[in-house]
Amino acid sequence: MQTTQLGLTKTYNRFHDPNDTAIDIQQLRDRHIQMDYAVMKAYQVRDFAKQNPLLDLNHDFHQTKQGLRFTISETARRDILDRLLALNHQRYAEEVKAGLHDKSKGKKKKEKVVQVNKDQYELEM
User: Fold this and answer.
1) How far apart are CA 57 and CA 36, in angstroms?
2) DSSP states along 95-118
3) What pLDDT sits at residue 121?
4) How far is Cα 8 from Cα 13, in angstroms, rounded to an integer?
5) What is residue 122's DSSP assignment?
6) 62-84 burial, b for 16+ CB within 10 Å, e for fewer?
7) Nearest-CA neighbor of 45 among 74, 75, 87, 73?
8) DSSP 31-83
9) 17-41 pLDDT, tens per residue?
10) Secondary structure letter of residue 19 according to DSSP
11) Which pLDDT tens digit goes with each residue over 40-75?
12) Taking burial as the number of CB atoms within 10 A of a residue's CB, which of 36, 74, 115, 120 is the most buried?
């Protein structure tokens, strides 16, 4: 972005353009792929059908609701969302077991806002 003097929007418009094969844009795509796999490794997302290699995200240009985008495949996206949902349920169950979601504490009540008339501020002297 410093070299091209383009902002985020223009840079990412180029990023998602399959006809843009400039080296800087390809390097940006490669960095996104590296980040995605680093996150997958950190969360230990494996493809158990393939004896535990990292799940293939199938990075490429895919049609999305926002149009053609350089992103992971729909199959990989759904798989990741399913895994995140399962992880969320697991973590919540652990928190409940640890007493972090105790219902007996109740919610704090909001303070009532009292409207004050302007005339109430005037002092008689």
Assistant:
1) 8
2) HHHTTTT-GGG-PPPPPPPPP--G
3) 52
4) 8
5) P
6) eeeeeeebbbbeeebeebbeeee
7) 87
8) HHHHHHHHHHHHTT-B-GGGTSPBPP---EEEEETTEEEEE--HHHHHHHHHH
9) 999 999 999 999 999 999 999 988 8
10) T
11) 888 777 765 565 567 889 999 999 999 999 999 999
12) 36
The arithmetic mean of pLDDT across residues 8-24, rounded, is 97
How much is the pTM? 0.70
Tokens of 90: 């697991």
Helices 23-42 and 8-15 pack at an angle, to 10 degrees, of 90
Structure tokens at 80: 């990741």
95 vs 42: CA distance, rounded Å: 21
Q: CA-CA distances (angstroms) from residue 31 to 13, 35, 61? A: 16, 6, 16
Which sign does the torsion angle of CA 75, 76, 80, 81 carry? Answer: negative
84, 75 Cβ separation under 8 angstroms: no
Distance of CA 27 to the CA centre of its chain: 22
